[in-house]
Structures are given as structure tokens and as C-alpha cells.
Design goal:
- By secondary structure, the chain is of the alpha+beta class.
- It has 2 domains: 167 residues, Fructose-1,6-Bisphosphatase, Chain A, domain 1; 127 residues, 3-Layer(aba) Sandwich (D-Maltodextrin-Binding Protein, domain 2).
- The protein has 8 helices and 15 strands.
- Strand 3 and strand 4 form a beta hairpin.
- The chain binds 2,5-anhydro-1,6-di-O-phosphono-D-glucitol and manganese (II) ion (2 copies).
- 2,5-anhydro-1,6-di-O-phosphono-D-glucitol binds next to strand 5.
């Protein structure tokens, strides 16, 4: 593909419903970008996790839910900001969209990176395994507005163009996690990391990987995808399931990671193979270069086996 391929050109070769879904989200970037300065505070409401919603969480969630349902390809939208699935009123559509409408919303206050995470399923079941996704993408609000889109045949990155151009144009294709890995980013209070995880992070440091953590999964993942390395929001001593959500964050990002030659794991299993038990399920997430994630899984297994000897 030539570098001036637009998102529209690219989507012409995709499943028409997937194209409609990507376009519905891509088309809202400027209205969302312009709204940010006017919705910096709290909404005064809570989401399904009992977390205080930011005004922008709610506004982006309602806007994107509406635009997605309007496509008529979408049977339902499940979102971390909606207590239950929002169904297509006419019962149309064969696709389910799982959405984190605003990932990294605590970064709005500090004007740091945040974005939107989308998983696409050709199914009316709201809680399919992540492996059943047909596409996944995230939009990143940074100096550029970019979309990183994983389809069956690889990972592509598009940048929002100048006003005079069509919406987005291709800046990277067949993205793969680079080797050797250069960065690691880890959430949670290090005092609450389990000992074997602390040992693993020390290993990364000893190998010269640089610490980059910015407080949004999309922003931190994007750095690892570009420079190679590891991102984790780990199990914590007081929160063994960690913080991030299986359906709205883990599955879409693990689909993208796998299409880029990497891996998303709970430390015990591939995230994409988890049968979701409830929509708001949280999981520990370790994601990035295949070798590093596999090394962590082996370390966790050895420690578990050693403990179970007696
Ligand atoms: P969200 O804004 O959708 O709730 O997601 C925030 C998540 C994730 O984006 C990020 O990796 C993590 O929370 C940051 O958590 P800390 O603020 O505890 O570092
Ligand atoms: Mn969110
Ligand atoms: Mn999030």
C-alpha cells in the first residue's frame, strides 16, 4: 500500500460492517477533541465499577454508542460506562462492539495521553471470548490523533490528516513489536506487587529497559508497540485481579498485541482464551513482546509449583 492510502481506501477492502464501525468512531475525533477543554471535571455519577465517572467519559460514551448503533451493523454496544448492553432499537445488526470510550480519563486533568478502545465481534453474544474478535482498534489523542487497527491480517496505524485531506492516512502497516525490547511500564503501587513480579521488573531494569509509564493503557501500550517491551497492570497483594477490565481493555488490546507478534496474558493464561464470567470482570494484564510475556508466565509457574510442593 502506498503511504498516502487513506483509512477510507483501506476500509474498502475490509468487511463492510467492520468498515462502518471503524468509520463511525474515526469520524468523531474532531468533535471529541474540541469538547475536551469543556468537560474536564467529574460527571457526579458512577460506572459499573463504582468508579466516579468523568464528564468526558459520559459524553464520549453517549456520542460513540449513538454513532455505533446508528450504523445498523451493530446489534449492541457493551461499554464500561453503560450498566447494560445498549441494543439496536430495530433489532438490526449482527455485530457486538465492546468499548472503553475513554481510557486514561484521569489524564484529562493533566492533559496527558488518553484514548478509546474498541473490540468488534461478529456475534450477538455480549460476552464472547476475546479470540472471537474480528477486529480491534484504539484511538489515541496525542499530539497526533491516531488509530491503531488490527484486522485478521495485521496491525495498521492511521493519522488524522490536515483539514483539507480525507480523514486519516496510513502511516504504518504490518506493525510488529520491535526487538530488542526497550521499554517497560507498570501500574499499581510497587509495594503491593507480588514478590515474583518485583523480581521480574528488576530483571527488565538489569537488562537496561527504560521505565515509561503514563497512566493510560492506550498510551503506554502504544509506546511498547513502537519501541518494544512490556506493559503490566499486575495482580496486587490487596487486588489479586488487578485493575484493568477483561472485556473492555484486555481483550481488544490483546487481539492487537497478538496480531503484532506479541502476547497478552494474565500471567497464567492467554487473555484471549478466557471465557468471560461477568461483563465487569477485572484481570491482571501483562502485554508486549512475546518472549518477555512467556518468560513472565514461566517465572510465575515455577513460583506457583515451588509453593505447592508442601
Ligand atoms: P479508565 O480511564 O478507562 O478507567 O482506564 C484507566 C486505566 C488504564 O488506562 C491505565 O493503565 C490505568 O487505569 C492507570 O491506573 P493508575 O491510575 O492506577 O496508574
Ligand atoms: Mn474508561
Ligand atoms: Mn480504560
Amino acid at each position: 500500500m502506498n503511504k498516502e492510502t487513506t483509512l477510507e481506501d483501506f476500509l474498502e477492502n475490509q468487511d463492510p460492517e467492520v468498515a462502518e464501525i471503524v468509520d463511525a468512531v474515526a469520524g468523531q475525533s474532531i468533535p471529541i477533541r474540541h469538547e475536551i477543554p469543556h468537560r474536564r471535571g467529574d460527571a457526579g455519577t458512577q460506572n459499573i465499577y463504582g468508579e466516579d465517572q468523568k464528564a468526558l467519559d459520559v459524553w464520549v460514551n453517549d456520542l460513540l454508542t449513538h454513532k455505533l448503533i446508528e450504523t445498523n451493523s451493530v446489534y449492541q454496544v457493551v461499554s464500561e460506562e453503560n450498566p447494560k448492553p445498549i441494543l439496536n432499537p430495530g433489532g438490526e445488526g449482527e455485530y457486538t462492539v465492546a468499548m472503553d470510550p475513554l481510557d486514561g480519563s484521569s489524564n484529562v486533568k493533566s492533559n496527558n495521553l488518553f484514548g478509546t478502545i474498541i473490540g468488534v465481534y461478529k456475534s450477538r453474544n455480549p460476552a464472547e471470548k476475546g479470540r472471537k474478535q474480528v477486529a480491534a482498534f484504539y484511538k489515541l489523542y496525542g499530539p497526533m490523533i491516531t488509530i491503531v487497527l488490527a484486522t485478521e491480517d495485521g496491525v495498521y496505524e492511521f493519522a488524522k490528516a490536515r483539514k483539507t485531506h480525507k480523514k486519516y492516512f496510513l502511516i504504518n502497516e504490518q506493525l510488529r513489536f520491535p526487538e530488542p525490547p526497550k521499554l517497560y511500564g507498570v501500574g499499581g503501587n510497587p509495594k503491593k506487587w507480588v514478590p515474583e513480579f518485583r523480581y521480574f521488573v528488576d530483571l527488565l531494569r538489569d537488562r537496561g529497559l527504560k521505565n515509561r509509564y503514563g497512566g493510560s493503557f492506550v498510551g503506554d501500550f502504544n509506546q511498547v508497540l513502537k519501541y518494544g517491551g512490556f506493559f503490566g497492570y499486575p495482580a496486587l497483594l490487596d487486588k489479586p485481579r488487578g485493575k484493568l477490565r477483561l472485556v473492555f481493555e484486555g481483550n481488544p488490546m490483546s487481539f492487537i498485541a497478538e496480531k503484532a507478534g506479541g502476547l497478552g496474558s494474565t500471567g497464567a493464561q492467554n487473555i484471549l482464551d478466557i471465557e468471560p464470567r461477568e461483563m465487569d470482570e477485572r484481570i491482571p494484564i501483562y502485554i508486549g513482546n512475546m518472549e518477555l510475556i512467556s518468560e513472565l508466565e514461566k517465572l510465575f509457574t515455577v513460583c506457583k509449583d515451588a509453593r505447592e510442593q508442601y
